[in-house]
Amino acid sequence: MSTHSEKAKGSLNIKSLISAYGTIIAGILIVIIFSVMSPASFATYDNMINISRQISFLVIIAIGATLVMSVTEFDLSIGAMASLGGVISAKLATQGVPIILCILIPVAVGFVIGLINGGIVTRFKVLSFVTTLAMGTIIGGFTFWFTGGATIFENIPEGFKYLGQTSIGSIPLLSVIMIITVIIFWFVMSQMAVGRRFYAIGGNVRASQVSGIPINKYKTLAFALCSMLAALTGSLLASRLGSAHPTGGDGFFLNAYAAVFLGMTVMKSGVPNIIGTLFGAAIIGIMANGLTILEIPTFMQDVITGIIIILALIIQKLGREKV
Amino acid sequence: MPLLHIENLTKKFGGHTALDRITLSIEPGEVHALVGENGAGKSTLIKILTGVYEPTGGRLFWNGQEVRVDSPNDAQQLGINVIHQDRQLIPYFTGIENLYLNVPYPRKALGLGIDWKKMKKEAEGLLAKWGMDFPLTVPASDLTPSERTMLEIARAMMHHSKLLILDEPTASLTDKESELLFAFIERLREEGVSIIYISHRLEEVIRLSNRVTVLMGGKKMKTLAREELSIDRLVHYMTDGQAHEKKETANRPSAGESILQVENLRTADQAVKQVNFELNRGEILGVYGLAGSGRTETMEAIYGLRKIQEGTILFKQQTITKPDPGNSIQNGLVLIPENRHEDALIMQNTITENMTLPIVGMFTKNGVLQKKEEQKRVRQEMERFQVKAVHSRQSIAELSGGNQQKVVFAKALLSSPDVFICDEPTQAVDIMTRQYIHDFLREQAGEGKGVIYVSSDLHEILEISDRILVFSEGKTVANLPNEQLQPNDILDICYSFQKEAVQL
Hints:
The complex is a heterodimer of chains A (about 325) and B (about 500).
Chain A: H1 2-10, H2 14-37, H3 45-70, H4 78-94, H5 99-124, H6 128-147, H7 158-165, E1 167-168, E2 171-172, H8 173-191, H9 193-203, H10 205-210, H11 215-241, H12 252-264, H13 274-293, H14 298-321
Helix pairs in contact in A: 2-13, 2-14, 3-8, 3-11, 3-12, 3-13, 4-5, 4-6, 4-11, 5-6, 5-11, 7-11, 8-9, 9-11, 12-13, 13-14
Chain B: E1 4-13, E2 16-26, E3 31-35, H1 42-49, E4 57-62, E5 65-67, H2 72-78, E6 80-83, H3 95-99, H4 116-129, H5 145-158, E7 163-167, H6 175-190, E8 194-198, H7 202-208, E9 211-216, E10 219-225, H8 231-238, E11 258-267, E12 275-280, E13 284-289, H9 295-303, E14 308-315, E15 318-320, H10 325-331, E16 333-336, H11 340-344, H12 351-355, E17 364-365, E18 368-369, H13 371-384, H14 401-414, E19 419-423, H15 431-446, E20 450-454, H16 458-464, E21 467-472, E22 475-481, H17 487-503
């Protein structure tokens, strides 16, 4: 015991500082580098507002991924779910359905699909990895059938685009929705019993079971909320673009998990967390924005973003090894 | 010259001495048994011999030469192989593939492809040489338990093993299968292979061994030669021949009303076959049994962690048909599980988060945590249990084993139970905490709660229990008031029932 506490005291050095705050430091460095290289276009108020709108989709879908990861599961169907959410939303809009229902119906569909994911994983003890991979394939196939493979863009009323394109003052409505989502789920995860139980399950399933927590119920809930947020992301994207492509949301899948993993490095305990995910998504968004301004081609952006994520994870692991 | 000579071998884990200056020799062609209660140091010794643990002190000699065993690979190079209870086979590999697991596959001419024919021939030759007979071309998962044991031994012999360590090899074998194994052990002995044999089944030990070394609490008690062996003697040394003094248990109502009755309990996995007992308010019921007796499994079944096939559980006059942990806690039955780290605590969480987990709902308003109230309550409990920690939001991982266990008890107490089921509650805790836990449970019993106390430490059972329930082979075999009982009275019961089971 004595050696343990000595270690804890002696660990206030640069190495531990980097491992504890490395991701935050890296984030700040990235902002500084872009600001210096391109002060006229990057470091402006307008661009910051722009970034906040650009990352809103990623943040919302990544919050869902954070929830399933907090119970140590994966949902690989979120990309496909976002695509489906988008096309359902757009299709409803073309039928003249009120905008609020154009959002709520896909969100409900997402919730139900998440319940199915969770039900299969918990009841039959199938790996979530495999279950949701298959579910993603099913959803993808269904979306193609539903749209005939074509982008939905004709006859979309202007009212539907309102949500994605309007601003409150200079703040885009999308950014406001993102912030509200962050606050809600931060509250759920850190101030409510539900969050406590999610983290307990993620920390030790067996001990949680012995403590009387209904594991299957909470895991299923995490899947349902995750799918729901993915569907919401898709419908917001459709509103923003005024159209919906059958694979429009697929690209969010990898970045969402990248954001969660980056976010895990922000917390000392290394668990998935909402604020960290917001931070991770912001780093990815800032990278994309800054590199685009510097006219670096998209494929190089992917390479650089990937390297940064791997570095962050390595640095965190190195810092943790001592403990 | 002995094949292996161990001199003053010591292993410390922090302040705890798991092995204390053990000296012993293994002769070539000898079956040398190690016996002792759980925690006697058998596993630690084996792990040092196989390079898993590094000894804190002492020396090892192999054929008279001092050696170091720094890794399992070193052990294998010397010719030391261990056959564990949990088998080290790849289930979907065939017998042949499992034999060649750590050996380069023979190649065809010019290295073009694997020479499967040669592999098969060599494997068959190996089996023929040792008089073994089991199919080599089916996956290991399709073999019977004894065939799997044989396969593992065959693999060890492929590495020209000179010292084979068998760790509870008969635990999952039927009697017929055990007989086959015993015959094979004879054969190995004739060929000059030395065997370290570990078993709780003393009958087997006496039958097979040239010599037996008894360990207790990390110390070597005695090495007995074949002609000196008897169950009584072994039990005598395993328990240090201590006449036991029972601590004060007075000023408790000797028998309150019955609170828990279990009848003809059988679990779906047959780990529990026929369990009957009754627990009264104000009573500490000690539960003892050897490894594999089904005592832990019984507690898990009652609590709701193991599927029940038949039997009735009556808790506070209510029949419980399908217990589950959530309901058990709500009804007032709490389990303190055997493995603190795996089953009781969430190591990355704080003291508070761990302590209030089962009843976190009580500290919420509309689902929102009332953290101030929660902290206040946790601090109270920390004070009551004298948990040594910086503050209540400290990570549980930073606490000592004893303090962690106090948190586990505080967590149990917070749900205001009527019955505590404690499974090895003082395992790996310091003396002070152990005393504290005993006092706490006596106090709870004094208030009319029921306590079930499972332990593999006989002395502890005799010290704390009002009544003692003995388990053997998944059944309750004795129910004794703790009056003038001696450790060997109980061990005698265990071994005689085991013998009976073997003869049946």
